[in-house]
Amino acid sequence: MTRLALNKSTLNKEGRKVKAYQKFVPALDLKRKQLLAARVSTEKEKHAQEAGLQALQALVKAQLPMLPQFQGRVTDLVRIKSLQLSETNLVGIRLPLLQSLEIEIPPYSCLASAHWLDRLSEQLCEMVRLKTQLQITEQRLRLLNRGLQKTTQRLNLFDKVLIPQSQKNIRKIHIALADAERAGVVRAKIAKNKRLKASA
Question: What molecular functions are annotated in GO for this chain (predicted)?
Fold first, then answer.
C-alpha cells in the first residue's frame, strides 16, 4: 500500500474521490432496488408456473388413471416445432424472453389408438408450454441473482470501503496540516524571540 502524502494536493485529490464515489452510490442503489423488485416478481411468476404444472399433473392423474397401461412413449405424443427467444435489457442485464412457442402433435391412427389419447395430447402440449416457460423463468432468476450480487458488492465497496477510507485520509491530512501550521507558528515565535534577544 502506498504511503499517504499529507499535503494539500492529496487533500484535494481525496476530496474529489469522495465526491465521485458519492455520485456512484445512488445509481448503484437504484439499480439494486430495481433488480430486487424484478427478482420478487420473477419469483412470484416461477411459483405460479410451478403451481400450474403441479395442478396439471394432478389433473392428468385424476382424468387419465389408465395412463400407466399406455404401451407407447408419452414423449412421442407431442414435440416442439419452433421456439423463439428474445432478450430484454434490465439495467444492463440481458434477460431471456419467450417470444413464441409452437408445439405440434404428430399424426397417429385414431382407430388403432386409445380414445383418451386426444385429451392426453392436449394436456401434454400445455405441460410442455408450462415447463418451457418455467425453464426460462428459472434462467431469468439466475441472471437476476447474479446481477444483484454484483451490484450489491459494488455498492458495498463504495459505501463501506472506498468512501470511508477517503474520508479517513481527509481527516488524517487535515490533522497533519493543522499540526504543521501550529508548528510553523511556534517556530516563527521562537525565531522572533531569538531575534529580539539578539538585538537587545
Answer: proton-transporting ATPase activity, rotational mechanism
